[in-house]
Automatic annotation (TrEMBL):
Entry's Gene Ontology molecular function annotations: 4 iron, 4 sulfur cluster binding; ATP binding; ATP hydrolysis activity; ATP-dependent FeS chaperone activity; metal ion binding
Protein name: Iron-sulfur cluster carrier protein
A Pfam family recorded for this sequence: ParA
Organism lineage: Bacteria, Pseudomonadati, Pseudomonadota, Gammaproteobacteria, Alteromonadales
Naturally occurring in which organism (per UniProt): Pseudidiomarina aestuarii
PANTHER family registered for this protein in UniProt: IRON-SULFUR PROTEIN NUBPL (PTHR42961:SF2)
Length: 352
C-alpha cells in the first residue's frame, strides 16, 4: 500500500501531520500487520487528539507503539475499527453475512467449537458485530457453551430464526431447534441442506464476522458448505498430535481445492502446565501444529494450552469468563482473534 504523505509545517492546521510526524508514523509497526501501515489509517482529530482507523477488528493494545513513540505520544490516541466487508468465494451473492470464516478440523474433539466460541467473544470484545453459526450437526455445543441449552430459537413472521445474543455474540445452532437430536442421523445431502438452511433462515443482524463451527472431517458436508456459501476464509484447528495433524493436512488440501483461502491455523491443547507445581507436560506432542502451519505456508494464529479453567467455564455456559479476566490464556486468545481479523484483511488485498 502506498503512503500518501499529507504533511505540513509544524504550525499548520490541526488536521495535518508535520513532516517529522509523517516520518515517525512511517516507522510505526502495528502488531499483526507485516509492513508500514498506510498513512491514511492515522488521522489528527484535534490539537492534542489523534486516531488510528483500522479496516479490521483489533484490541486497544494495537495503539501501544503510538503511545510509546517519543514524538507521537504527545497525542491522546483513540482507536476506530471500520471493519470492511471483504471479497468472498461467491461474489454474485448479496453480502449479508459479513466476513464468513469457517472453523474446521479434520479430527473430532480437538477443540474446534471451544476455539470458535472464544474467537467470537474476543472479536465482539474488540467492538465487532459477530455471529456464530453452529453447524456441528453431530454435536452442536454452542448452546451449552453460551449458556442457553434449553432455550429454543424464536421465529419471526417471515419464518426466520432470531439468533440468541449472549456475551456480545449472535448465535444460531441446530442445538436450539427442538428436533436437534434427529440431526445426528442426517447424512450427506440432507445434512448439507439443513446447514445451509440454518445459515440462510437465521435473521442475522448486520454482521462484521460470522464464524461457522463446521462438523469435524473433510467430507461432503464440509465441501458443500465451502462451495455453496460466501466464504471469506477458513481457520484450521488441530492438536499437536500426529493423527490430528494428518487430518488437519486433509482439511487444508480440501479448502485449497475449492478455492477457500486458509486464514490460519490454531494449535489447541498445546501442552499443560500444572498450576500447583508449574511442571509442563506436552500431552499431545510439541509444536506439531506450528510445524504444519510452516510446512503449508499457513499463518499460525496461536498455540493455546490445555486449561482446566477454559473447560470448566465452557461446560458451565460461561463463555466470556476467561476473556473477562486478564491472564496468559486470555492474552493468547485475544492475540489469535486479532491475528485472524488482520490476516483476513491482508489476504483479501491479494484478491481485490
Ligand atoms: N484448550 C483447552 N483446554 C482445556 N479443555 C479444552 C480445550 N479446548 C477444548 N477443551 C475441551 O475439550 C472438549 C472438546 O472440545 P470441543 O467440543 O471444542 O471440540 P470439537 O473439536 O469441537 O469437538 P467435536 O469433534 O465434537 O466437534 C470440551 O470439553 C472442551 O471444553
Amino acid at each position: 500500500m502506498k503512503q500518501k504523505a499529507q504533511a505540513k509545517p509544524a504550525s499548520a492546521d490541526e488536521s495535518q501531520w508535520s513532516q517529522d510526524e509523517v516520518d515517525a508514523l512511517g516507522q510505526i509497526r502495528l502488531s499483526n500487520w507485516p509492513e508500514a501501515p498506510p498513512l491514511e489509517w492515522f488521522q489528527r482529530t484535534g490539537a492534542q487528539q489523534a486516531r488510528l482507523t483500522l479496516p479490521f477488528a483489533a484490541p486497544a493494545t494495537v495503539l501501544t507503539p503510538l503511545l510509546e513513540d517519543s514524538l507521537l505520544r504527545r497525542y491522546d490516541w483513540s482507536l476506530r475499527c471500520d471493519i470492511r466487508k471483504l471479497p468472498n468465494s461467491q461474489p454474485d451473492l448479496p453480502m449479508i453475512y459479513g466476513n464468513v470464516v469457517l472453523v474446521a478440523s479434520g479430527k473430532g474433539g480437538v477443540g474446534k467449537s471451544s476455539v470458535t466460541a472464544q474467537l467470537a467473544v474476543a472479536l465482539a470484545r474488540f467492538g465487532a458485530n459477530v455471529g456464530v453459526l453452529d453447524a456441528d450437526l453431530y454435536g452442536p455445543s454452542m448452546p451449552t457453551m453460551f449458556g442457553q441449552p434449553e432455550q429454543k430459537l424464536v421465529f419471526n413472521e417471515q419464518q426466520k430464526m432470531i439468533p440468541h445474543h449472549r456475551a456480545g455474540v449472535h448465535v444460531s445452532s441446530l442445538g436450539y431447534l427442538s428436533d436437534a437430536k434427529d440431526a445426528a442421523i442426517w447424512r450427506g445431502p440432507m445434512a448439507s441442506a439443513a446447514l445451509q438452511q440454518l445459515m440462510r433462515d437465521t435473521k442475522w443482524p448486520s454482521l462484521d464476522y460470522l464464524l461457522v463451527d463446521l462438523p469435524p472431517g473433510t467430507g461432503d458436508i464440509q465441501l458443500t458448505f465451502a462451495q455453496k456459501l460466501p466464504i471469506t476464509g477458513a481457520v484450521i484447528v488441530t492438536t499437536p498430535q500426529t493423527i490430528a495433524l494428518a487430518d488437519a493436512y486433509k482439511g487444508i488440501t480440501m479448502f485449497r481445492k475449492v478455492g477457500v483461502p486458509i486464514t490460519g491455523l490454531i494449535e489447541n491443547m498445546s501442552g499443560y502446565t500444572c498450576p500447583q507445581c508449574g511442571h509442563h507436560e506436552d500431552l499431545f506432542g510439541h509444536s506439531g501444529g506450528a510445524e504444519a502451519a510452516a510446512a503449508e505456508n499457513v499463518p499460525l494464529l496461536g498455540q493455546w494450552p490445555l486449561d482446566r479453567g477454559l473447560r470448566e467455564c465452557l461446560d458451565a455456559g460461561q463463555v466470556d469468563a476467561i476473556l473477562a479476566n486478564s491472564s496468559v490464556l486470555s492474552t493468547t486468545i485475544e492475540n489469535s482473534a486479532a491475528r485472524l481479523s488482520a490476516q483476513l484483511y491482508l489476504q483479501a488485498q491479494d484478491r481485490v
